[in-house]
Amino acid sequence: MSLKKLAGQTVWYGLSNIAAKLLNQILTPLITYMLRRPAQMVDYGNFSMIMACVSMANVLFTYGMETAYFRFSSSGTDQKKLFQTVFTSLLVSSVVFSALLIMFRVPISDFFGLGAHTEYITWCVLIIAIDTLAAIPFARLRQEERPRKYAFVRVAGIFVNIILVSYFIVYSPGAVAAHPTTAYAQWYAGNTNVGFLLLANLAQSTVTFLLLFKEWIGFRFKFDAALWKKVFMYSAPMVIIGLGGMINETMDRLMLPKLLPATEEVRKTAVAIYAANYKIAIFITLFITAFRMSAEPFFFSQAADKNAPKTYARVMKWFVIILCLAFLFTSLFIDIWKHYIPAEYRQNGGVGVVPILLAANVALGIYYNLSVWYKITDKMYMGMIITLIGAAITLIINFAFIPTYGMYACAWATLAAYGSMMVISYFLGQRYFPVPYATKKLVSYLVVMLVLFFAEKAVMYFTGIVIIRLTAATALMFLFLRLVFTVEKKELVGMPVIGKWIK
After folding, report:
1. Are 269 and 44 in contact (CB under 8 A)?
2. 184 CB contacts (<8 Å, ≥6 apart)?
């Protein structure tokens, strides 16, 4: 796969993942504007906590098999045998894990404060299991370089989620009030907003898996024990890496309601506010996700090429530039983006965590790009150590400072963890798999990004007039674009499409 092809596939994976993230971006204002009363905000806080646990459980259910599938697909392993073995492994383990979780659904439900709604835990388990079974068919699409099918399936599932959330949260309250004696009205009254949101996610997972029919219909219970052992030995550290990553990404939403010295309602409301503002960082996370979808197969396929390090360095440069643009696009125009959530979710300085989380995601994106060295050199244990260091930083800072600083401690812990992982990975990578990154240039771009951000903060400090703020933000954004154009002009001229507009 060439660098040009990587860019093209990043666009396709980007479109589907932009749609996925925009689903959350569309659903975030939809849900938060509809769930504005205190009790409803508690529901949103509960839902955010549950989905944080779902993300962690997904790591355990897949136990690194997706990345292992790419690794062994690129090493000459029989594709059919590999797929049958990996899918069989995930199917059997998913059944076992699901049975265990459903068996303990009552204490799990009590932990989340769901009361008698233990069926919500069963729905969550089904979401996790179905998503797990869809992981390898999705990986197959990526490995076979079929981004269009990938995008279609992702977007179709997304539309199902949007339709059902709109039906449950927007339409149904009025319909039930108008016809309170119907069977649907009685069922609706017996559930909560948490359940409705989970059902929408379950429907999305189910539709997505069914649309991958052609990718898994050829599955047969064929298991190569020798091959599985090799695959599992490679993937096992990914469980620790994945769990560490989920601790960094989601543990704050579980620790915040447990450590914040306040009433239960205030704690859950704080989670709701933090989770809603977290979504504003979407413009960086969507690109990171899109890049990961296309870059992982690319990095493995290029590993044997003698020019691979130079290619990786070039990819990193443009990746950092786009991350900087995404950071500035969101942070400079925060006066606009903050209206994606209602005022109730912006209370207690909630919007203030957004720039911190954006910076954290810049560090995370760079770390993902740097992590190629331990994947292609089969030093997965090094990735595990780096991730555990990040997880330890997350846990320590959250535990020490949440009681005093609340959600701000969560945001700073995220930045400290990802920043540390980025720096450690860079230095270890240069030792085990040297890549000629343009380090000084990359650091300069990041420094300029921060300088422009603080310049806008200064403008915001001196004036509350939105039009002046937005004018300043536009000028600062233009300055960064101008810098990139000046420094990278020679390379931009040689690019397709863009180069035609540059003289």
Report:
1. no
2. 175, 176
Distance from CA of residue 209 to its chain's centroid? Answer: 20
Range in 222-226, 238-242, 303-307 with the lowest mean pLDDT: 303-307
Tell me the Cα Rg of the chain: 23
Between CA 319 and CA 286, with CA 453 as vertex, the angle to 5 degrees is: 35
CA distance 473 to 465: 13
Mean pLDDT of 22-32: 76
Whether the pLDDT of residue 201 is over 70: the answer is: yes
- Evaluate if residue 69 carries a pLDDT over 50: yes
What's this model's pTM, rounded to 2 decimal places? 0.82
Q: Count CB-CB contacts under 10 A for residue 250.
A: 21
Residue ranges of alpha helices (H) inside 190-307 are 193-211, 213-216, 225-259, 264-278, 282-302
Those residues whose C-beta lies under 8 Å from the C-beta of residue 271, and which sit 6 or more positions away, are 45, 48, 49, 253, 256, 257
Distance CA 207, CA 393 (A): 38
Do residues 294 and 15 touch, judged by C-beta distance below 8 A? no
For 456-467, write each residue's pLDDT tens digit.
999 999 998 999
Q: How many CB atoms lie within 10 A of CB 35?
A: 23
- In single-letter form, the type of residue at position 471 comes to T
Neighbours of 141 (CB within 10 A): 23
* Displacement of CA 31 from its chain's centroid (Å): 19
Phi, psi of 342 (to 5 degrees): -70, 170
* Helix then strand then coil, % of the chain, to nearest 5: 85, 0, 15
- State the chain's mean pLDDT as an integer: 85
Residue 1, pLDDT above cutoff 60? no
